[in-house]
Write a structure and sequence with these properties.
The chain has helices at 16-22, 49-57, 69-81, 98-112, 127-142, 147-157, 170-175, 181-189, 213-227, 244-258, 270-276, and strands at 4-9, 24-27, 30-33, 36-39, 63-65, 85-90, 118-122, 161-166, 192-198, 204-211, 235-240, 262-267, 281-286. The protein is of the alpha/beta class. The mean pLDDT is 92.
């Protein structure tokens, strides 16, 4: 087995058990509610997701912060001192400054530790899309590939990591400037649910809309049918904003339509959930294109 560390950030929304099973390290992003800063660890030690989403439903506001250079340096330096090489898979530069912080830390530490291999990749992914890319990278590492080979594998395939999602409450997208106040008002009145994805620039963009919740969930799976590669043998990740039953509905549709067996479900973490809100459901898989 290749001896290098895969490090990602908590935007990947990997649960503690899966992160441990994959043998990856996770640097926490943070969020602020009522002037208190919380760190988003995979084990949710500072705030569990249900509490977070309940507070959003009650009207509390959350703001988020990227991982900064000092945090990356603090996480990386002990590994480099141990003689370990490190591959960072960072949150999309289109949605956060986290990747840029990792890049600056890598530049600084590569000078200090010239004998170590230290790389960072802008995944252009978010939530469990980033998590699924980390899953694939860990698989390639465990197959014995070198850090350079795994980095190249990720760079070549990251734009095949498809993100399809929908939200239940347009208020949160309005507050984040993703849609106008008028669009949010009309959409809410007509029960219109946007269908969105993360594009090749790592940005959140709309791809359509559906009338009603069930139609929006079906639209995610319809899009998968258009783009998925070898859908029956795929590993599929699904994340949700405290709406497990809806995520399980998507899981059932995916299994019935494609024969997929390997599905992992987890919460949309607070870093993305602050902007997408309760009721978000997202579907992630490898496809021909985003």
């Amino acid at each position: 087995m290749s001896d290098f560390v895969i490090l990602t950030d908590s935007s990947a929304d990997l649960g503690a058990d899966l992160a441990q099973r994959l043998n990856v390290q996770v640097v926490p992003l943070c969020f602020v509610m009522d002037d208190h800063t919380y760190y988003n660890y995979p084990d949710n030690r500072e705030m569990d997701p249900r509490t977070f989403y309940n507070r959003l439903r009650q009207g509390d506001l959350a703001t988020t912060n990227a991982v900064n250079v000092a945090q990356y340096t603090e996480a990386l330096e002990p590994l480099l001192q141990e003689g370990r090489d490190v591959l960072i898979l960072a949150f999309s530069s289109g949605l956060s400054n986290t990747y840029n912080s990792s890049r600056l830390a890598v530049e600084e530490l590569s000078v200090k530790y010239p004998d170590r291999k230290l790389y960072t990749v802008d995944t252009l992914c978010a939530s469990l899309g980033q998590g699924l890319l980390v899953w694939y990278a860990a698989r390639e590492r465990d197959r014995g590939h070198s850090i350079d080979e795994v980095r190249d594998w990720v760079e070549e395939r990251k734009l095949n990591l498809c993100h399809q999602f929908t939200v239940d409450d347009l208020h949160f997208l309005k507050r984040g400037g993703r849609i106008s106040a008028a669009t949010a008002m009309v959409g809410s009145m007509l029960h219109i649910k946007p269908v969105l994805h993360v594009n090749d620039e790592g940005l959140l963009v709309s791809t359509g809309k559906a009338r009603g919740r069930q139609a929006s969930l079906k639209a995610l799976v319809d899009r998968m049918e258009e783009t998925a590669i070898d859908s029956g043998s795929l590993t599929v990740f699904i994340s949700h904003g405290d709406c497990l039953e809806d995520a399980q509905t998507v899981e059932k549709m995916v299994k019935e339509r494609f024969g997929v067996e390997d599905v992992y479900i987890n919460y949309v973490g607070p870093v993305i959930g602050a902007h997408s809100g309760p009721g978000t459901v997202a579907l992630f898989y490898v496809g021909t294109n985003r």
